[in-house]
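hey can u check if this looks right to u? its 264 residues, i copy pasted from the old doc so theres a chance i mangled smth
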Amino acid sequence: MAFEELKERQAVIWGNGPFERISETGTVAYDDLVGRLAPEQGERWLDIACGTGAVAFRAAKRGAAVTGVDLAPALVARARQLAAEAGLDVQLDVGDCEQLPYGNADFDVVSSSFGVMFAPDHQRAAMELGRVCRPGARLGLVTWRPEGGVGAMFKTLQQFQPPPPEGAGSPLAWGEEAHVEEVLGGDFELEFSEGDVVLAAESGREVWELFSTSFGPVKTLNETLEGERRDEFEQAFVDFHESFRTNGGIRMSREYLLTIGRRR
């Protein structure tokens, strides 16, 4: 099934805002992923749905020969700017994780942090992960747990979004071991662990100000809604995050699944 129109919209939506501000809230997961994959000098590393470079830059700093690819041209442009400012030699390409612009068995390591999970055709994306890995290559994914804080946040957003196209896979399915085994188990030996990226803020309003200006899906949705509906969305988002209030402010657990694979 083709989802070209959906992906064209995704390419614009995810690039709508300075995503690096959102990435700053996820450093625990990025460090976990790169640490488990243990980059080695000169290894050919592909980071899929690289965003503004959080994982790609970490791998490059540890000596890997890194390529990053993302569907959103604006994110790739920003990643190139940030790489130049950091003095990092990282190849950054615009591309679709369901049809990667690379050859068979081109990479020693393939990673994706909260990225490939948003491809609508899960089976096709999984086939591409296997195709670009050489035999024995390492795979690492971090994906949001459906029952975790981000899964609950997505449910809040869904109340205000149009339904996805028929047949599009749920991103949160990638946070379940059984689904990952189903789509990747034929090509990879897999092992799983869990982690948590706690989102800390003074208030739900502070979280809103960050996400409504920097997280493409929230920013775009807020810009699309009008009048009372827009006000309702803002209040629902603030109230949702206020439900995680403690004596120290907002402390929202954002549980993730870490998948490590070895190409058969």
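The first helix runs from residue 4 to 14.
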